[in-house]
Input
Amino acid sequence: MKQTNKLFQKEFSLKFPLSAIDRKTIVLLTGFILLLTCTITGCGSNSQQQSTQETQNQSVPEQPDREQPSQAEDNQSQFSPSTQSVPEEVEAETETVAPSPDVSSSPSYLGTWQITSSTFGAYSAMSEEDCSALMGTRFEYFNDYAIYDNQHRLDSPQYIESILTADDFSSIYQGTSLETLGISKDSIQVVAIENASGIGDTFYIKDENTLIIPWDGVFFEVQRVSQNTPAEDVVFFGSWYVTDYRTSSIYTLSQEEIDTFLTYTVAYYEDGFFLNGTQVEAEAEVFGYSYLDYTKAEIEEQFLADLTDWWNGKTAVKGVNLYAEENEESLPIKYCFGANFFAADSETLWIYYEGVFFQAKRAGA
Output
């Protein structure tokens, strides 16, 4: 046993250095292998992570592709018919706010009108003579002014429009119907001028060129003479000099006075009147012009004057009067020389004064 043990010890002692070296080498190799394994494993994990990230990165672009249809659907839903009604409403509001054709500012009844006939109602306070005296009377209805009731002028008139049924019309006028006036309608438009009183302050629209003016139980039919204001038809603003004259059957001026007026000059402007270069003070808050058309026959009948050689083929002239407030201070301008005249054309005026017509030509013409 002892020999065997010694042999064992001897063998052990001889083999230990080699086994020690082998263990060290093994340890180093093992560590190297572990390090290499970790490196390989780490690289593998990195590559795996990289490949995973690449896979994720590759999947990221696909997400918008998958979401794009939903975004398109959202965009499509924003422009769906239900949401398109919003701009349509805006357009509708815009159309409402936008000014429509100016119908109310230029109603069909604006213009110059003249009485041509009359119809007595069921009850009347006027005689045949009274009606005959009103034949040819003219009325002017415009936005800036209205002339009614024997040349009464109202500036900035307010026209109140309404609709009256045929039954209501018959009830108001005690049995006089629309049919009696030649109107076969169930209703008619009536216009009243606010703050006006007199014949012509209320009228009915029979048609575009015919009005019905009720007064004292008589219904006067008036026909349109013109749609434009007389001032729009003839321009008389500017300076004029007197050149000739004609007397009527009745006049009060002496020949000396007539000769003096033949040297006069007059000038008309929107805000004033000048006589021989000096402005005639109106002494009134309101100054302006009123107008009335006259035919050759009307001038001969009303003014008793034969102006045949002045007409030169004209059928009508514009009568113009200086207008000022009715008070004593405004009387001089209304009754001085040049306050009443007829605009024959754009180059000729006929000034009427004390029964004499003075012809005036435009200065510089």
